[in-house]
Design a protein that fits this description.
This protein is of the alpha+beta class. The chain contains three helices and four strands, in the order E-H-E-H-E-E-H.
Length: about 110
C-alpha cells in the first residue's frame, strides 16, 4: 500500500494520479490518494477517471474539512482493457438510444 499526497496540485491532480497508479503501483496493490476538494466536482471526476482507466475504486471519503481520500486498487492490463471496452460499448449504446429517442421526437 502506498499513500500519495496530491493536495499541492489543487484541481489538476487527475493526470498525476493516473501516472502514479500506472507506474507507482504493482498489479493488485492499493494506493491511497489525498487531494484537496474545491467545489466537490473533483470527487466525482476522480471516481470517473479511475473507472475510465479500468482500476478498482475501493473507497472514497472525506479526510477533513478540505481534503478527500480515494483508495484505488490497480487492475491487471487484461481487466483494464475489458472494462474500457465495456465502458466504450455502453457509451455507444447510450448515444444510439439517445439518437433514436431524438429521431422519434422529431
Amino acid at each position: 500500500m502506498k499513500r500519495y499526497d496530491l493536495r499541492h496540485l489543487k484541481d489538476n491532480f487527475y493526470g498525476r494520479m493516473v501516472e502514479l497508479i500506472e507506474k507507482g503501483l504493482d498489479v493488485g496493490e492499493v494506493g491511497i490518494f489525498l487531494f484537496e476538494v474545491g467545489d466537490f466536482s473533483s470527487i466525482q471526476k476522480s471516481a470517473d477517471v479511475v473507472k475510465a482507466t479500468g482500476h478498482d475504486l475501493m473507497n472514497s471519503l472525506k479526510f477533513n474539512e478540505v481534503d478527500w481520500t480515494i483508495v484505488v486498487k490497480k487492475s491487471t492490463p487484461q481487466i483494464q482493457k475489458e472494462r474500457q471496452e465495456k465502458m466504450k460499448a455502453a457509451q455507444e449504446n447510450a448515444e444510439q438510444n439517445a439518437q433514436e429517442v431524438e429521431e422519434k421526437v422529431e
